[in-house]
Amino acid sequence: MSNEIRSGEYVNPRGIPQAPFVETVEDYVKSRDQVEGILQSFQEMLSKYKYMEMSTLRRAAGLREKIPDIQKTLDSVIFLDSKRDSENPTLITTFELNDTLYTKARVKAADTVYLWLGANVMLEYPIPEAVELLQTKLKAAKDSLAICEEDLEFLRENITTVEVNTARVYNWDVQKRREEREEKDASAAIK
Fold it and tell me: What does pTM read for this prediction?
């Protein structure tokens, strides 16, 4: 086994490498001189995993916030589409202008809707295209959230592995130091 720290053979589909698991510290660390470098490498690896975890948590939180908005918009467009063919195509509704400001509106049946796409861009879509677009966006957001959750689980497992490796190498070093000190004390007592 090599003395340098290498990640495991497996890399998840998003390119996150798996942390190596140190089964036998004696096979992994050839001498006590290497311990400091190995522990430092583990700390760097742990920092990278924690950074990826925080980034993935932020991305997942954004998706969790975005999915209900997309679903609400999709439901509204589907409802408007259902009103087009009804006997009373005009709809009187209350809608939100701001967080605490609402107003009443009369909405006539239409063949198109306007959707905010982001970056101050609004486009007009025929209702069937709007439904298709929103369904695609909703599915993509849900798929991305599932990927984030999968990556978070993978990262948490690897963080635990690196922490266990760190503890095992550190404890091995402490034990070796104690053995060396006991050998010195024993040889000093014999003299």
Answer: 0.78
